[in-house]
Amino acid sequence: MEDRSLTSTENRRFDRSDNACSTANFSGFMENSKTENKKLVGVMPRIKRTNSETPLLVVDEVYRKRWHIQGVIGKGGYGEIFLAIDVKRAEEVAIKAEPKHRRGKLSKRMILEQKVLLKLQGKPHVPVVYASGHDERLNFIVMQILSVNVGDLKRQSPVKRLSRTTVGRILQQSIAALRDLHGAGYLHRDVKPANMCFGVTQKTRHVLMLLDFGLIRRFKEENGDLRPPRKKAGFRGTQRYVSTRVHARLEQTPCDDLVSLLYSGYELLIGELPWKFLEKNDEIRRFKEDMQTPESDFLSHKGDPFHEFGRHVFFLDPFAEPPYHDLQNTLKALVGGKKLVDPYDWEDNYQEVLDESTSSKE
Ligand SMILES: Nc1ncnc2c1ncn2[C@@H]1O[C@H](COP(=O)(O)OP(=O)(O)OP(=O)(O)O)[C@@H](O)[C@H]1O
Fold first, then answer.
1. What is the atom index within ligand 1 of the atom nearest the CA of 152?
2. Whose CA is nearest to atom 17 of ligand 1?
3. Which ligand 1 atom is the nearest neighbour of the CA of 195?
4. In what order do the strands lie in the sheet with 138-143?
5. Which pLDDT belongs to residue 296?
6. Which is one GO molecular function term here (predicted)?
7. How far apart are CA 343 and CA 103, in angstroms?
8. Is the CB of 193 under 6 A from ligand 1?
9. For residue 10, is pLDDT > 50?
10. Which of 86, 152, 180, 190 is catalytic?
11. Which of 48, 121, 241, 269 is 20 to 30 A (C-alpha) from 174?
12. Quick one: the chain helix, strand, coil %, rounded to 5?
């Protein structure tokens, strides 16, 4: 095994041989016995050894006699994501933990996330869940360890953006992830680069995974019909990425996840969304509304595959099933003959996007 300094603040890549052990049953949570042959080769997240003052899980402690906590690898608005070693299987896992109570109320967010993640097990763009459950203080999900998120992979690029072929493939895979999720009857409602990671094993390092099912909502009845829309829906999502329909508090449908995906792709391609520095909700909404008018600069870009994709997405019928396959096909020219398994920017020292930048200056 390579030397892995856990105090390092750099992203790490390392190789590790698999050493899967048998599974055991615990009370109070479910366990998935599926384990994949592990050899970690992807862009591993940074580990912070320092916890917050009131840590959800304590570094160096063994949680539930099973997971040796190594450090924090991610933080969201609700909880924290830890790197841990599963002492039974001798392999790295990620543990997402959230307090059970929020502002004095029982938090249902992670309970729903646990349920949906379990339902989606076996889908290629969803992380493998090894266990999930709760104790008196927190809810937790033990899952497959993934790479640095795509937003951070963009931030690490020397030109703070990603190449067209990398973005095209991220979008094609995200469309597949959304097709599977929508097919199961759920909307994500928080599609953004920070909620996308790649696998870190040889087999999964080119597979995009969609994360964070905390804002998920069922949009179909059990019989497949659309649930009747509410007159006014609450705001759910991240202001920068939500569609104009969400700004208008309309009931979300699959097209709104796809608009968030379009904005995510635009951000990855150009570096920052034009409304990044606007603070007022109305100003952001107006900017987005202008962008989707047929005479906008964005939609006047004829012949460019990303703008073609934008045209498709902006004019989707909110109440019809999106043409996922056609949308993926629109992106073929952006991908330019690269395969999903060919290296992505971060595996190639961002050379392609550096070359794109140089040629656009000439
Ligand atoms: N399985 C994983 N492996 C590696 N990193 C992960 C994993 N799950 C989450 N992360 C990292 O942690 C970050 C936060 O995760 P997540 O979005 O699930 O948390 P959250 O508390 O629900 O966040 P939010 O406030 O955006 O809703 C992600 O952006 C990602 O970088």
1. 31
2. 212
3. 29
4. 29-31, 129-134, 138-143, 91-99, 80-86, 67-75, 62-63
5. 93
6. protein serine/threonine kinase activity
7. 45
8. no
9. no
10. 190
11. 48
12. 30, 20, 50
Q: Is the pLDDT of residue 152 over 90?
A: yes
Contact 293, 188 (CB under 8 A): no
> How far is it, in rounded angstroms, from Cα 267 to Cα 193?
9
* 0.90 surpassed by complex ipTM: yes
The SS3 call for residue 360 is helix
Ligand 1 center–CA 81 separation, angstroms: 6
195 CB less than 6 Å from ligand 1? yes
Ligand 1 atom having least distance to the Cα of 113: 22
How far, in Å, is the centroid of ligand 1 from the Cα of 193? 11
Instruction: Give Cβ neighbours of residue 239 (< 8 Å, ≥ 6 apart).
Output: 281, 284
Q: How far is the CA of 300 from the centre of ligand 1 (A)?
A: 36
- The answer to whether the beta carbons of residues 197 and 150 sit under 8 Å apart is yes
Global confidence as pTM: 0.89
What are the Cα distances from residue 195, in Å, to 63, 85, 127, 148, 360? 25, 23, 12, 10, 30
- Residue carrying the six token digits 């603040």: 9
Spacing, Cα 318 to ligand 1 middle (Å): 28
Task: Indicate the DSSP class of residue 246.
Answer: H
Neighbours of 62 (CB within 10 A): 13
* 114 class by beta-carbon count within 10 Å (0-12 exposed, 13-18 middle, 19+ buried): buried
358 vs 325, higher pLDDT: 325
Q: Which residue type does 193 have?
A: P
Does 214 sit in the ligand 1 pocket, CB within 6 Å?
A: yes
Task: Take residue 285 and report the two structure tokens written for it.
Answer: 């909404």
Q: Is 96 annotated as a binding residue?
A: yes
Look at residue 55 in the predicted model and tell me its pLDDT. Answer: 82
Residue reference for tokens 């099973």: 66
User: Strand 129-134 and strand 208-210: pairing?
Assistant: unpaired
Question: Would residue 135 show up in a list of annotated catalytic residues for this protein?
Answer: no
User: How far apart, in Å, are the Cα atoms of 285 and each of 273, 289, 309?
Assistant: 13, 6, 20
Please tell me the predicted confidence (pLDDT) of residue 229.
87
